[in-house]
Amino acid sequence: MMIHQKMALANIKRTALCGLLGFLFTLPLIAQHGIYNDDPMQKMPLGTEESEYHYREATGESFSNTRIEPPNWWTGMAERQLEILIYDRNASDLEPSIDYPGVSLLETTRLENPNYIFLLLDIAPETKAGSFFIELKYPDGRENKAYPYELKARDNTPKAQGITAADFIYLIMPDRFANGDKGNDKGRDMLQKGTNRDKVFFRHGGDLIGIMEHLDYIEELGATALWLNPVLENDQPYESYHGYAVTDHYEIDPRLGSNEQYRQLIQLAHARGQKVIMDVIFNHTGDQHWFIRDLPATDWIHQWKDGYRDISYRAPVHLDPYAAESDFTQVTDSWFDKHMPDLNQQHPQLANYLIQNSIWWTEYSGQDGFRVDTYAYCDQGFMSEWNRRMLKEYPDLGIFAETWVHGTGVQSWFAKGTRANDHNSHLPGVTDFQLYYALKEALTETQEWTSGVAKIYYILAQDYLYEDAYRNVLFLDNHDLGRIYGELGEDLDKFKSAVSLLLTLRGIPMLYYGSEILMTGTGGAFGEGGRRDFPGGFPRDKENKFKERDRTTEEQEAFNVIKALANYRKENPVLQNGQLTQYIPEDGVYVFFRYNEEKTVMIAYNSNPAEMTLATDRFAQQIAGATAGTNIVTGQKVEDVASLLLKPYETVVLELQ
After folding, report:
1. Pick the catalytic residue: 235, 373, 487, 516?
2. Which domains does the chain have, with CATH numbers?
């Protein structure tokens, strides 16, 4: 770690020490053994009731604390208009006014709930940074309410640098990666307190400082971008660890850190040439979100007086010319879970709120991109507008969306370009589940006409459906799936081939934390190990897999393969944006080439359980007279590429000379 980064991190940890002292003082209070049973799969503390669906009225009877959101804004933004939400008791009864040069009040919106008022402002391009008051005037002459508001000057620090095929993403579930600050574990004044690492569904204590402390490890591995599972507040009574039930859109969860620590993480990452991706959810929130507890309008969420409706997950309804309306609404309007109300993104004030929130975090923190959760279940008109607005503000911003669907035709519909129903999402890239399915099949099944390793060939042959398939994110597993090493029967040769294909195919490769040390676990969100703690990231861990000395021979071998390929890829555009030519697989062997004007890389994968000798004369056009090559993983020179000996399940990656 660089000296100045060590000093910066030391200062961050010194600030966190005060929280640790408080934690030690209150430790006996949170060691509540009465909330646990003996089941490692216990889902909620004993005595906690599971959320029940009920129809919510926008009556204004559950007022909590006054809020103004966004909490501030900036001058010189590409979009001149800003809609400010003021949440205060009976705020809608009052008349707003603003007196600041360059700022005009265009429109006032009042909804059913009297505690909300929305002010649409125009901020002229010449407006100066500064502070002013938003006044709400009583009609009877009582003293006005005045809310301070600040327009900041935009700074020139790096932000929204984008995520491209030149990157290699490392996906981290913050609660499960590393605990750098035990002082924030208890969760002051939160519905779920404390940690229990013996329970899959309880919090374990990982945090932002823990990630900061291991940026050097991520850099050594060769990753250039960090995707963090959601870090915003999840003040839910159970299952709050994963981050996908947001309860405050403008606060980092205090058990992970603070807004300032999130910004410091990004600054430290940027100093290393690493980028940071925020995971966002527009489909739903947690049912303890302040604006769910005091709903602005009845139609702020999708709900029904006749009872709860489960989502069907059938994404093809968006493009199906024969889709029934009831099937469509069961995808777009139904709920994931009874503690996750489904947001109505067609509501204009909610839509603006979500878009401005994403802009605010980008401008405030300097983050470089977004991964959009549950993209296929949102209103697609809203998602198209979100993409358009974000890219208008930050043209280089990286955006990719979760499209957990089946079939390339369905998946590609969500990507940028004019599609069926005249839909254009403006979405740069998607999570490439079709290639994930193909890779898994290629690594586990025998080749047939369209199956086994041939599946990769057929999936890539459909890349014409995308405007730019190189913007798609490739992966072998993630937080919702079984870990790839286990899925491959803990076969190290297959695993090495898996990561070799991941890092050489077109697109943006992504690695789930711990895959590089052969972590196993099934079922993602519902299994016993898909979201395990990284060994060594937590106090009193017996082994520290962040250090080579504690890795097994097999773990180090896996780590080295990824490190070699990722760092080669980082330095060589041929594996980033180079063209790709693939050959129809024969006898279970799949060969493709990545090439540009400077270099040609040949990749050959043997999907057979037996050794194979591959004659390369069939590939003469791509080999283009090269007679030798260097194995990128091992560094060994191959003196004659006229034929290659491929071990069982081996992938050879050669830079041709």
Report:
1. 373
2. 169-310+366-573 (3.20.20.80), 575-656 (2.60.40.1180)
